[in-house]
Design goal:
Pfam families: Xan_ur_permease. Belongs to the nucleobase:cation symporter-2 (NCS2) (TC 2.A.40) family. Azg-like subfamily. This protein is mainly alpha-helical. The chain has one domain. Helix content is 66%, strand content 3%. It has 19 helices and four strands. The strands form two sheets. It has a two-stranded antiparallel ribbon. It has a two-stranded antiparallel sheet with strand order 2-3. Helix 3 crosses helix 4. The longest helix is centred in the middle third of the chain and has 29 residues.
Length: 431
């Protein structure tokens, strides 16, 4: 039944491969269950309640992706967007978390409407094929950078922005050992190499103090109540300029993070059709729209498609069965939270580094002889890791593409929607 519904055999995959891919994706993004409550609690929200809201919103959004879009992508409250929610809107601008949650709720409604009227699909399909390949490469460098940072191999430096961390740190050694383990397993063509690498690194971390098991560790626990944050909105200031600014920022970052992830991972996995379009993209965009809408009601920040989905795709995930597995894992995590919480960043980081390698292969498909194509592609690739944002990489790539085509008299190659998007990007920068 599952094979027929998800067309697993037709997509040249197996049920085992899809399940392993889903578990791998989950293992690389399970950190959000610990990180999101920590960030949103800084805004005054109940930390335990946010944990439950985070897991539930991930389950609902990923189920939509699995059962409606039937694509191997997972969703959860987005990193960066949660920080903007807590540290900019609440702590910086001085608004209540209820105000910020209302902005997320409105964003979800707007996204549902934009998706229903095919506006978001139009944006995805307007991105030139070379830029779609570049997005995959840029995401590869970006998530590899996240992985290197997660191990402590790369650290911040006030003089040079980044520099090499201490090679004596146990987390660095665990991370590097994980990369080697995955590398050996991949070379020997062992299925589930990335997942095995995560588990092996977690176990290794026990011996050097990187994997911490709390004294009060219990395997099973009931999920905390979401009552303190459920349906807590403040509609008294929805027509203010500040609400407009906050709403626009949420919309902009989430739209192009999701678009970038869908395009980049689809490009890498060979899912783009002959016209360079993402299959069932409208249904995929509905998943994060509904996730954001429901997530706000439950009490969490914007839900988006996770770039860590690339880890599952790298393991062979090709259908919605991968996403269904992720959704089931998030549902189980509500009751096994203590177990998942002991997996350290140093154990998931090697997976991100290796997936970064996988993601850069589409660079061979980019036309580097035509500078009106090569320069935008390069901007897309380099700006993602350096700005720590998929969205900003797309902004620089698309803006430079439009400007170079216009200035060289090749305006016929520009789709009208790209002109509109470029104008909006310029307004974002200078207004």
């Amino acid at each position: 039944m599952l094979d027929k519904f998800f067309k697993i055999t037709e997509n040249k995959s197996t049920l085992k491969t899809e399940i392993v891919a889903g578990i791998t994706t989950f293992m690389t993004m399970v950190y959000i269950l610990a990180v999101n409550p920590g960030i949103l609690s800084a805004a005054g929200m109940d930390k335990d309640a946010v944990f439950t809201a985070t897991a539930l919103s991930a389950v609902i959004a990923t189920l939509v992706m699995a059962l409606v879009a039937k694509l191997p992508f997972a969703l959860a409250p987005g990193m960066g967007l949660n920080a903007f929610f807590a540290f900019t809107v609440v702590l910086g601008m001085g608004y209540s978390w209820e105000f910020a949650l209302t902005a997320v709720f409105l964003e979800g409604i707007i996204f549902i409407l934009l998706t229903a009227f095919n506006i978001r699909e139009l944006i995805v399909n307007s991105i030139p094929l070379n830029l779609k390949h570049a997005v995959s490469v840029g995401i590869g460098l970006f998530i590899a950078f996240i992985g290197l940072k997660g191990t402590g191999l790369i650290v911040d430096n006030p003089a040079t922005l980044v520099s090499l961390g201490s090679m004596k740190e146990p987390a660095v050694l665990v991370g590097l050992a994980g990369v080697l383990i995955i590398g050996v397993l991949l070379t020997k063509k062992i299925k589930g190499a990335i997942l095995i690498g995560i588990l092996a690194s977690t176990i290794l971390g026990l011996f050097v103090g990187v994997t911490i098991v709390p004294e009060d560790f219990t395997l099973v626990s009931l999920p905390p109540s979401i009552e303190p944050i459920f349906f807590k909105f403040d509609f008294s200031q929805i027509f203010t300029i500040d609400m407009l600014i906050v709403l626009f920022t949420f919309l902009f970052v989430d739209m192009f993070d999701t678009v970038g992830t869908l395009v980049g991972v689809s490009s890498k996995s060979g899912m783009l059709d002959k016209d360079g379009k993402v299959p069932r993209v409208k249904q995929a965009l509905f998943a994060d729209s509904i996730g954001t809408f429901v997530g706000a009601i439950l009490g969490t920040s914007t839900v988006t498609t996770y770039v860590e989905s690339a880890a599952g795709v790298a393991e062979g995930g090709k259908t919605g069965m991968t996403a269904l597995t992720v959704a089931i894992m998030f549902a189980l995590s509500l009751f096994f939270a203590p177990l998942f919480m002991i997996i350290p960043a140093a154990a998931t980081a090697p997976a991100l580094i290796i997936v970064g390698l996988f993601m850069i292969s589409p660079i061979m498909k980019i036309d580097l002889t035509d500078y009106t194509e090569a320069i935008p592609a390069f901007f897309t690739i380099i700006m993602m890791p350096l700005t720590y944002s998929i969205a900003e990489g797309i902004v620089f790539g698309m803006l430079s593409y439009v400007l170079l085509k216009l200035l060289t008299g090749r305006f016929k190659e520009i789709k009208p929607i790209m002109i509109i998007i470029a104008i909006l990007f310029i307004i974002k920068f200078f207004v």
